[in-house]
Structures are given as C-alpha cells and as structure tokens.
Write a structure and sequence with these properties.
Helices cover 59% and strands 12% of the residues. α5 (76-93) packs antiparallel against α6. By secondary structure, it is mostly helical. The protein has 2 domains: 3-68, no CATH class; 76-170, Fe-S cluster assembly (FSCA) (GMP Synthetase, Chain A, domain 3, 2-Layer Sandwich). α6 links the parallel β2 (107-113) and β3 (143-147). The chain starts with a helix and ends with a helix. The protein has 7 helices and 3 strands, in the order αααααββαβα.
Length: 171
C-alpha cells in the first residue's frame, strides 16, 4: 500500500469514528499538522529557484504535496496541456485528436475529434484515457468535460480502428 493510499484509508477510518468529540479532535489535529507541514514546505519553496522547484515537482509525491498547499510551480493549464501532449500520439495513432478549449473554475473543457467506426467501446476507452492523463497531471481539476458528441447515435467522438480483440470485448 502506498503512503497516499494508507493516508486515505486512515482518514476514512477517522471519519467513521462513532464518538463525535474524538472525531472532531482527531480531524483538528490532522488539519493542524497539515497546516504546520504546509507552512514549512512553503518556506523551503521560497528558498528554491524556479528550475529546482520544477524539478522537484516532477516527483509525483512532491507534486501532490505542492498541490495540496497551493505551491505547485506549474499552472493547471500548463499541466493539462502537457498531459494532452503526452496522450496525443496515442489518439493520433487511432485517428483521433483532442483540443483544449479552456480550463476554468476547476473544469477542463475539451473537444474530441474524429469518430469511432464499428467499435462502441473504443471511443469511451479513449475518452477515459484522456481523462486519466488529465487527472493524473492535474489532480486539482474537479471535472473533465468533452465536447464533440452532437448525436450519441453517431458517436462523433474519436476515429479509431479497432483491433478484433477490442471489438469482441465491446460486444
């Protein structure tokens, strides 16, 4: 179990405490510790140069801490653009593409391009791949909305060629 998963499991257990006073005290203690560590992390970040901070932010755990405390050096939009750049070759190899329309109020709006011919599961699979890439790079995003499907019956989402195995799995 990763430290993040272990922490989430412990917080779930804390929320389930039957004694409200114990739950409130434990929650307040955790919040105070998070604030304490956040303040210390902020002071360290102030002493780093931009290149050093960006290098540290490439580590997933450090990036998570920087995001938690509002200290991440890369904007949400830049992280989303990077995620889309990383997933774009995969999309293009299947005849699709994605365009970033905007990032506003925690919502990433995308336009998916292409269409899926004969394989109902593939468009959803690729949409999920895009969402996973975006949320991995920008966990501070609340939602990913995709445009490009006017009529679900026509599945104007992404154009891909399905492997026989994927087509069979979709049935």
């Amino acid at each position: 179990m990763t430290i993040v998963a272990e922490t989430e499991a412990l917080l779930d257990r804390l929320d389930a405490l039957p004694d409200p006073t114990a739950r409130e005290t434990a929650t307040a203690t955790v919040q105070a510790l998070v604030a304490l560590y956040g303040e210390g992390l902020g002071r360290m970040v102030e002493r780093l140069g931009p290149a050093q901070l960006r290098a540290l932010a490439e580590d997933e755990l450090v990036a998570h801490l920087l995001l938690l405390h509002g200290l991440h050096p890369v904007s949400v939009e830049q992280r989303v653009r990077g995620a889309l750049a990383n997933v774009r070759p995969y999309l293009e190899s299947h005849g699709g593409d994605v365009e970033l329309l905007e990032v506003a109020d925690g919502v990433v709006r995308l336009r998916l391009q292409g269409s899926c011919h004969g394989c109902p599961a593939s468009a959803m699979t690729l949409k999920q791949a895009i969402e996973q890439a975006v949320l991995s790079a920008a966990p501070d995003v609340d939602a990913v909305e995709a445009e490009g499907v006017d009529d679900p019956a026509h599945a104007q989402l992404l154009q891909i060629e399905c492997s026989p195995a994927l087509a069979a799995e979709a049935r």
